[in-house]
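Sample entry (306 residues):
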Amino acid sequence: MKLMLLINPSASSVDWKSRMAANSALVTDHDVTTVETTKRNDATGLARRAAEDGFEAVVVLGGDGTLNEAANGLVNTNTALAALPGGSTNVFARTIGMAPKTTKAAPQLGAALARGPGCLRTFGLGTVNGRHFLFHLGVGYDAEVVAQVERRSALKRKIGQAIFVYSSFSTYFKHYDRKRPSFAIDFPDGASVEDGFFTICLNTNPYTYLGARPLSVTPDTGPERGLVTVTTKKLKVRTLLTLFGSALGSGEILRRSKSVDYRTDLKSVTFRGHKPFPHQVDGDYLGQATSLEVTHGEASIRLIVP
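Predicted structure, serialized as C-alpha cells:
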C-alpha cells in the first residue's frame, strides 16, 4: 500500500523508539512517505494532500489532537486513517483496540494491513460548527480543563496524565464559574436543559482513560447509534467525585443521577450560551463560543482497525 506516516514530533510519547517501531512495521511491505507536523492544524492539510495524491492510508503517530486533525483532512475521501499511540492518553486508538504503546501497536497495525480490505470499516463522525470529531465533544468545565492542560504543554510531556488531574483541580478552584451555568442545550424533540455546567457529547465510549482504567460513561454508542450527551447540572466537588467514581465502573450511577441529564441516539443538538463558554473536540481546545450546532452522521472516514 502507498502510506503516509504522519508524525507529530511534539506529542508526549513520540521518541526515537516509537518512530523506529512504526517504520519497522510498515516499510518492509509498503511504500511509506514520512512527514512531520510543525504547527497546529498542520495534520489536516497534510492528510488532505495525501488524499489528493492518491495515498491509500494516512498512519498517524501522535496524540488524539493530531489524529482529529488528520481525520478532518480525510472526511469523505477514499484514503483511510490509521492510529498509532503517540500522545499521553491516546483515547481513540485504544478505543478501537490498538495497544497503548507504539512498540506493540505498530506490529498490530502491520498485521491489520496484511488483511487487506478486511481491516477497513466506515466510521461516522460527529460535527460541531464545521469541525469533525472522532470520539467526543467537551463543553464547559471539561473544555476549560483541556485549555489549562494546553497552557502547560511542556509539563504535560514530562508528567503525562498527571497533568490532567492537576488541571482538573486548578480549573475547579481558579478558572471556571461553578456557581452560574454557562449554557443551555436544545434537543430535537423540543426538550431543553437550561442549567449546563459541563457536557460531554460522545460518539464512542469510554470518555477517557486514567492510566489503564477506562472511564466508562455509556453503553449506548456504536456504529448504528447517534450521539450521547451527558450534562452535569451542578458543579460541586461531591457531585464530580461521585460521577468520577461511577465512571471507573459501569457508569450506571452517573446515568441515573439527578444532577445529570442523559440523552442517547441524537442526530443533532444545539448549545446556547448564557455567556461565552469553552469547548474542545477529541482533547483539542477550540476556544470560546456563544453557540454550537452539533450533528452526527453527515461525515465519515475510512478507518483501519486491528
